[in-house]
Design brief:
The protein is an alpha/beta fold. It has helices at about 15-25, 45-50, 70-80, 95-105, 125-135, 165-170, 180-190, 210-230, 240-255, 255-260, 260-285, 290-320, and strands spanning about 5-10, 30-40, 55-65, 85, 90, 110-115, 115-120, 160-165, 195, 205. It has two domains: about 5-115 and about 155-210, Alpha-Beta Complex (Spore Coat Polysaccharide Biosynthesis Protein SpsA, Chain A); about 210-320, no CATH class.
Length: about 325
């Protein structure tokens, strides 16, 4: 019977940790331990953790701030499990999660796995719109975790697991921020370990609660892709340039009336058609006009913020190395 070690780095999110731990108490497979690694928070979650000491096999650590990558390493070093599982602190875990993972690993040899994310029924319309945008193929989100992804599957740290052997050989994360999970996944694959997607091992991922927070997060993601290219130049692919093309196209569109009103009209129709497609697709999936409307804003925010982050960090790399 596999023992799973759940490593959760936390920074100033006691309420979210409460929801996450509560969801873990309902697991149908319960052979797991939980390691909470408080990363120098000023709003500590020790009192929240104390509520669950009799309900979960739980250990709490407080350490100076070092970023989420190195905080995960801190947990890896102290974990006892056969598989080390990483969740973001803003996730809610469905009750079948570990049972699903364990059955899948019985039938498939994987050294590292990842799972997708979904929107929970309790999420606000904005959170559901952000979740739609981050998982929609129209915004490139659906490319990240689908079966049809080209090449080996790259797990992401909001929902992933690695064998003890993977940790022992990789020594965990080499960087703590700015694309640390991408770099980690690439290195796992390059060392010959087998990775895979477990589609039914999904989590409910809150991400951000407002579009302004979402903008900051995606701006950071755009910068992170450039940061990864400092280690792996070949990891900037066409799909990562699509938000950049969108962003530059958006700016250029407003210069077109000076050149040609016809070209401006064509460009405007293309933009309106694209976001119309997103609206109707989001409505078909969510059955909500408010979520569909907010999904248009979330999709624009995702593409534009990622594009700006990519361009600014790319310029910094070009000029400063």
């Amino acid at each position: 019977m596999r023992l799973y070690s759940v490593i959760i780095p936390v920074y100033n999110r006691p309420d979210e940790v409460d929801e996450l731990l509560e969801s873990l108490t309902r697991q149908t497979y319960d052979n797991f331990e939980v390691l909470i690694v408080e990363d120098g928070s000023s709003k500590k979650c020790d009192n929240v953790v104390e509520k669950y000491t009799g309900k979960l096999h739980l250990t709490y650590f407080y350490k100076p701030n070092s970023g989420q990558g190195f905080s995960r390493n801190f947990g890896f070093e102290r974990a006892k499990g056969d598989f080390l599982v990483v969740f973001d602190s803003d996730c809610i875990i469905p009750e079948h999660y570990f049972e699903t993972v364990d059955k899948y690993l019985d039938e498939h040899k994987l050294d590292a796995y990842g799972g997708p994310d979904r929107a929970h029924s309790s999420f606000t319309p904005t959170q559901k719109a952000i979740s739609y945008s981050m998982t929609s193929v129209f915004t490139t989100g659906g490319i990240r975790g689908g079966k049809k992804r080209m090449g080996a599957f790259h797990p992401r740290s909001f929902n992933m697991g690695i064998s003890k052997e993977v940790y022992q050989k990789t020594k965990g994360y080499k960087i703590t921020r700015m694309g640390e999970d991408i770099e980690f996944s690439i290195r796992i694959i390059e060392l010959g370990f087998k990775t895979g997607l477990i589609e039914d091992a999904y989590v409910y991922h809150k991400r951000r609660t407002s579009l302004s927070q979402f903008y900051k997060q995606l701006h950071f993601f755009g910068r992170a892709r450039i940061n990864i290219s400092r280690f792996y130049p070949g990891e900037v692919k066409l799909v990562h340039l699509l938000p950049v093309i969108f962003t530059l196209g958006f700016f250029f569109m407003w210069l077109l009336p000076v050149i040609s009103t016809v070209l401006f009209s064509v460009a405007l129709i293309l933009f309106v058609s694209f976001f119309g497609l997103i609206f109707f697709d989001a409505f078909a999936k969510e059955k909500s006009l408010s979520v569909a409307t907010l999904s248009v804003g979330a999709a624009f925010t995702q593409l534009f913020a990622y594009g700006i982050g990519f361009l600014t960090e790319g310029w910094r790399k070009l000029t400063k190395g």
